[in-house]
Amino acid sequence: MSDDRKEKQAIGLAYDGVNAPQVIAKGFDELAEEIIAVAKEHGVMVHEDPLLSDSLARLDVGEEIPRDLYIIIAEIIAFAYLLDGKFPASWE
């Protein structure tokens, strides 16, 4: 019998506000669940997007995201900042 379920994956990114976001954690199945749980425990936004995670899963830990993902990652980071009540100084 074939198991057609897709493995769970989690890719953690860090952004220092200057350089491109970088992969800081990566895991599949049970490790993915642990990464997500730790992120949520620490108030880190978790965004689920299978296509994006498939692209990010190809990267190694420590690697910066590729240029072709800058816009989508920037939009997610900006949205996370807004949800956290952080706004650009020019908005005040």
UniProtKB/TrEMBL annotation:
One of its GO terms (biological process) is protein secretion. Keywords: Bacterial flagellum protein export, Cell projection, Cilium, Flagellum, Protein transport, Transport. One of its GO terms (cellular component) is plasma membrane. Signal peptide: none annotated. It comes from the Bacteria. The keyword Protein transport applies. Belongs to the type III secretion exporter family. Required for formation of the rod structure in the basal body of the flagellar apparatus. Together with FliI and FliH, may constitute the export apparatus of flagellin. This is Flagellar biosynthetic protein FlhB.
